[in-house]
Design goal:
Radius of gyration: 23 Å
Number of strands: 7
Helix content: 25-40%
Order of helices and strands: HEEEHEHEHEEH
Number of domains: 2
CATH topology of the largest domain: Glutaredoxin
CATH class of the largest domain: Alpha Beta
Number of helices: 5
Largest sheet: 5 strands, mixed
CATH superfamily of the largest domain: Glutaredoxin
Strand content: 15-25%
Structural class: alpha/beta
Strand order of the largest sheet: 5-4-3-6-7
C-alpha cells in the first residue's frame, strides 16, 4: 500500500469515527446533566396536574419559586396517619416563607369517601390532591406509602423519604434545605 493510499484510508477511518460519535451522541437535555425528570434527589421533579376533591387544579411546575413537599399517602396507611400532624404543623410554620405541601392521595387504591373525614380528623389545610389514575404514583415510581419528595425552589428534588412516619425534626431539616 502506497503512502497516499494509507493517508486516504486513515482519513476515511477518522471521518467514520467522527460521524459515529456525532450520530450516537446524547441530544441536549436527555442526560442526567440535562433537565430530565426523575423521582430522585438531584433531578427535576416529574410534573403533574391533579385536582382537589372540590375540583381545584394544581400543577407542580406552576409552583416553581416555592419549596414543595409532595407527600403521597392513603387513609388506610398507619405511618401516613402518624406523620400528618407533623406535616400540618410544619406547613403552618413555613407556608409564609414559600413552603407548599401537596398531599397526594393515592385515590386509585384508597376509599374516596374516607378522604374527607381523614382531612377533617387531622385538620389538614394544605391542598389534598386526588391521584385517581395512578399518574403520579407511576411518575414517582411509588412502591411504598408514605413516600415524600422535598423539592427546592428550582423544581429539583432535594430529598426523598420512603416510609414513615417522618418526625418534626426530619421535616424541619428537609424543609429548610429545600427553602435555600
Amino acid at each position: 500500500m502506497t503512502l497516499s493510499q494509507r493517508i486516504i484510508l486513515y482519513v476515511l477511518i477518522l471521518t467514520a469515527g467522527a460521524s459515529w460519535i456525532f450520530i450516537s451522541s446524547d441530544p441536549a437535555g436527555t442526560s442526567a446533566s440535562g433537565k430530565t425528570s426523575a423521582p430522585q434527589a438531584g433531578f427535576t421533579a416529574p410534573d403533574f396536574t391533579l385536582k382537589t376533591p372540590e375540583g381545584e387544579e394544581y400543577t407542580l411546575s406552576e409552583l416553581k419559586g416555592n419549596a414543595v413537599l409532595v407527600n403521597l399517602w392513603a387513609t388506610w396507611c398507619p405511618p401516613c396517619r402518624a406523620e400528618m400532624p407533623a406535616i400540618q404543623k410544619m406547613y403552618d410554620e413555613y407556608k409564609d416563607q414559600g413552603f407548599v405541601v401537596l398531599g397526594v392521595n393515592m385515590t386509585y387504591q384508597d376509599d374516596p369517601f374516607a378522604i374527607g373525614p381523614f382531612v377533617s380528623e387531622y385538620g389538614l389545610t394544605f391542598p389534598i390532591l386526588l391521584d385517581e389514575t395512578s399518574e403520579v404514583g407511576a411518575a414517582y415510581q411509588v412502591r411504598s406509602l408514605p413516600s415524600s419528595y422535598f423539592i427546592n425552589r428550582l423544581g429539583i428534588i432535594t430529598e426523598v423519604v420512603i416510609g414513615g412516619p417522618m418526625s418534626e425534626a426530619l421535616l424541619r431539616t428537609r424543609i429548610e434545605e429545600a427553602l435555600k
